[in-house]
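Notes from hallway chat w/ T.B., transcribed later so I don't forget. T.B. wanted the structure written out for a chain they're using in a teaching module, and asked if we could keep both sequence and structure tokens in one place. Agreed to drop them here.
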Amino acid sequence: MPRSQAARPEPSRPTWRQFARRLTIAFILFLLMSLSLPLPGSFVFALVPVTLLVWGGLLSGIAATNLFEGQSPMRLAWAGLTTGAYMAVAVIALVKGTPGMIDLLGAVVALTLVPHLGRRDLGAAMRDWAVVTGVALYVALGVQAMWVLVSSLGLPVFFIVAVGPPLLFEALMLLFGRSGRQPVRGLLRGYVAPLLLATVTSVALLSFTQFNRSMLPGWLLFFGAVVGVLIGAGLLLSHLTRRMAEAASGAQSGANPIARSLVDLSHGPLIISLALYLPISLLR
């Protein structure tokens, strides 16, 4: 069953070492995806979706392992069921797109319930089933959203608007928290100033590198504001739900630091990608 002690964990204070691990993982992911040259008939082009699938598979497996308690064989079984459900949805989503993913959701949700039918504790069975389906669908939808960003806007834009802002936000949080001075009241207190700075920086990079220079100033401000609101909302939601991400990363149980860093790194980009997914899908 899910870990009872992970229901409301105490927030952990980020460190520069943890930030360095996440930055390194992000750089490795960027290198792997950058190898995807659009050469006709070459398998290299498939490295982008394959990297996203593997990324999501590791994320779902690590999260499921840390969210369940009990003996190792049972935890591995639930982690395998979660990863299998994720792969079933994510592969169809990347191959056939959103309509194919929606058609498969009902079957996956129903089939993940089958292993729980013979259990005596129905309450625990329902909680386990909710965790399995919740993690699998959340990661699969996030991977689909990231693939839409990459395929529609390109790899540089994906890292500018989805991966970069959470890393910059964390770096600014560390700088504000370790400046040696008391935080200024108002905007500079807490996370508001880092959130605004990270959002404005990402929008500025996007506008300087991707927007058409001949675009009218009014439209430039409009598109920048829309993108900024979506990125800022994703950053805010990822920060407010960071305790959930820490529970899934095993922060309270002394999990492997690399696995923990992978989960913590993925949380922000998944939410931002989901925030950008709907308007991009409508414009495609």
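Follow-up for T.B.: The chain is about 75% helix and 0% strand. Might be a good example for the class.
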